[in-house]
Amino acid sequence: MGLATEVITTNQTSNVIRIALDAMGGDFAPQNEVQGAIAALKHFRHVGANVEIVFVGKEKDIRSALAQQDTGQESSGVNYSIVHADEVVTMDDDPTQAFRKKRNSSLFQGIQQHANGYVNAFVSAGNTGAVMSTATLVLGRIKGVSRPTIGTFLPTTGKLPVLLVDAGANVDSKAKHLYEFGVMGSIYCRQILNVEHPRVGLLNVGEEPTKGTEVALQAHELLSNGVLNFVGNVEGRDILIGAADVVVCDGFVGNIVLKFAESFLGFLKTRFRAFADKSLLNKLLMAAMKPVLSKALKDMDYQEYGGVPLLGVNGVVIIGHGKSTPLAIKNMILRAEEVVRKEVNKSIENALNPPTISTKEPQS
Amino acid sequence: MGLATEVITTNQTSNVIRIALDAMGGDFAPQNEVQGAIAALKHFRHVGANVEIVFVGKEKDIRSALAQQDTGQESSGVNYSIVHADEVVTMDDDPTQAFRKKRNSSLFQGIQQHANGYVNAFVSAGNTGAVMSTATLVLGRIKGVSRPTIGTFLPTTGKLPVLLVDAGANVDSKAKHLYEFGVMGSIYCRQILNVEHPRVGLLNVGEEPTKGTEVALQAHELLSNGVLNFVGNVEGRDILIGAADVVVCDGFVGNIVLKFAESFLGFLKTRFRAFADKSLLNKLLMAAMKPVLSKALKDMDYQEYGGVPLLGVNGVVIIGHGKSTPLAIKNMILRAEEVVRKEVNKSIENALNPPTISTKEPQS
Question: Cβ–Cβ of B253/A253 closer than 8 Å?
């Protein structure tokens, strides 16, 4: 595939965690990617974690971006390498076509590095659908997982965000899939947000177990009888008040809720702008108010979260928004390291493959 | 059923529009109902419309609320009557139980007045599910309508609100139902909001026709081949920017989006309060900002809209939020009169029962 692998600086030990970064993924690649990665590496050096970043993408562009970075007073402990990849998957590329036709893309090659065992995780702010389908096809699924899923965080009025899962990876999910989303989301929430017994809610149109679609009714039963801390149905109004730590839904609903929520900040801004335009007094009031609004609504900006996990694939994959800032990229890399270190996938596999065989379904 | 019908003031002519009002429906009934109705009647008198309100509910309570109202310098042209009904359907009542067991409720009796032809419309701020199921069972459906539906308005950054339909009346809708929701929503939008060719969008997870659930794919095809001004799929982020005048979806998704949207204002308030609590300066800033925020976000308060239509039943039914203010009640009554006067139901029937056979089928 014409790879030009060249290790620039490494400090290889047996405990090193290697993270492949799709250097060409986001809208501001590779600048934001490189800047975020260097910030992450400095953080790892500071805390004494042995982590190496593998930049995957156009070598020349990556080097050029790296040249603009100050890697710190001494470069020891800031470990990165470059794997050259000629092609770039764009945001407009069809995921299936990207998988079939762009085998030398940074996206495909980064995931391939993971599948080969050369890296422990893959991070990308690129085409979400392409990352998802390529990762699923190349890495495979964790044993017991029917469909990998993407969770996303939304802010709440409480202390912690809520994990909405599935946020768009799967439409027409069956009850069994929703149950698995609940298990994966719960484990992620426990291990990453440190919530001991995450409250799992099923997104529905009413609190009563008799409410909702056929699939929702069946999922309610599965979740009630499972091992999760299931708090029952939650409604649309319960999401932002943090009535559950994990909100389970089909990707069709999750995607619509997520995109609707993301559009809200823009809606507010338009409204405030229209108000300001009405008079000079209004303009002055809004100007005075701007920093207040920014602070109060800071975490409504999805870029703050720095990536969401692709759960259920046989690997660690963190996906970020195309508009990811260097800070978001840094946070995605930190998150990837955490997911590797805490062995989230092992917990998912254990939870979905309990040692005793279920009495309900005979194994074939 | 023990009705005590007593006409207090009437000015009966052949052109009178009679509107039954569930006087016991809302959380502040009958005060808000009576206050709103009198305001509506004064409006009708002012514009020379011949409208009579039929209060349905506990006569004594209604009279007591009426006594507190100033019906204007002269009572001529302010027409109302009272139909006594002993029982009240509460917000917690199960819709099916309410229909079976509370036949002498203001809700049931008001709808019965409509079915009997004594009134032209029914307005309630009561139990939405109970109004919907009772109205559907007692009034029946318009010819060609498979499932009656509830639309709801959401604000947009544009000049007009968007009609989200279905907003929770039906879950597990089939493509055919979604098509009908589009037709009914489009007609309502044209006749009530005066949008000549309402843009109808299908709520989905992507713009491409190949996106979404099986039902969404089929609905996309039906809507593409129909008579509507179909603008294709719209995503969650497109709702608040007014990318369509009518957004069609299954009631499961619609209900979740609606309740999620309604919770935003509370979310903002909590955030602003938390910000204010941090320091005296913050408190002063927020206090100065409060009227600004109120003005800028005014129409995010669902109470401003004053009711939504139950579309597809063989009658005119307007449903309001339990917390409806007198202004909201007034607006619901005005809306009911408008829907009757503009013969919205006739348009729906014509649209769903076209006189000519589609040219795709061979002509006999």
Answer: yes
Tens digits of residue pLDDT in A153-189:
998 988 899 999 999 999 999 999 999 999 999 999 9
pLDDT tens digits, one per residue of B27-51: 999 999 999 999 999 999 999 999 9
In chain A, residues with a C-beta closer than 8 Å to the C-beta of B266 are: 157, 240-241
With an 8 Å Cβ cutoff, are B257 and A260 in contact? yes
Separation CA B309–CA B320 (nearest Å): 9
Please, which residues have CB within 8 angstroms of residue B352's CB and are 6 or more apart in sequence?
B142, B143, B144, B145, B180, B183
Query: Is a pLDDT exceeding 60 seen at residue A58?
Result: yes
Paired residues of A20 in beta bridges: A54, A122
Asked if B252's CB is within 8 angstroms of A213's CB, the reply is yes
Please determine, for residue A148, whether its predicted confidence score (pLDDT) is greater than 60.
yes
**Residue B121: left if φ>0, alpha if ψ -120 to 50, beta else—which one?**
beta
Indicate if the pLDDT at residue A339 is higher than 90.
Answer: yes
Interface test with A, best of B260, B294, B301 (most A CBs within 10 A): B260
Chain B residues close to A263, C-beta within 8 Å: 236-241
* Residue A87 half-sphere exposure toward CB, CA atoms < 13 A: 17
Element (H, E) at B19: strand B17-22
Q: Whose CA is closest to A271, among B44, B150, B241?
A: B241
Is B119's pLDDT higher than 50? yes
Sheet bearing A246-248, strands edge to edge? A4-9, A79-84, A51-57, A17-22, A121-124, A317-319, A308-311, A149-154, A162-165, A246-248, A199-203, A229-234
C-beta separation of B248 from B203 below 8 A: yes
B251, B149 Cβ separation under 8 angstroms: yes
Q: Is the pLDDT of residue A360 over 70?
A: no
For the CA atoms of B283, A277, B245, A203, what is the dihedral angle to 10 degrees?
-20
pLDDT category at A226 given cuts 50, 70, 90 is: confident
Give the whole-angstrom CA distance, residue A166 versus residue A150.
5
Percent of chain A with pLDDT over 70: 89
Which carries the bigger pLDDT value, residue A299 or residue B346? B346
Contact A275 B268 (CB under 8 A): no
Q: At what angle do helices B106-115 and B128-139 cross, to 10 degrees?
A: 30
Cβ contact B253–A258 (<8 Å): no
Instruction: Establish if B236 touches chain A: CB-CB under 8 angstroms.
Output: yes
Taking CA atoms, B244 is separated from A18, A30, B162, in Å, by 47, 36, 7
Measure in Å the smallest separation between the Cα of A276 and chain B Cα atoms.
Answer: 9
% of chain A residues with pLDDT over 90? 71
What whole-number distance in Å separates Cα of residue A54 and Cα of residue A7?
9
- How many C-beta neighbours within 10 Å does residue A294 have? 10
Asked if B240 and A274 come within 8 Å (Cβ–Cβ), the reply is no
pLDDT tens profile B69-88: 876 655 666 899 999 999 99
CB contacts under 8 A, A 111-130 vs B, are none
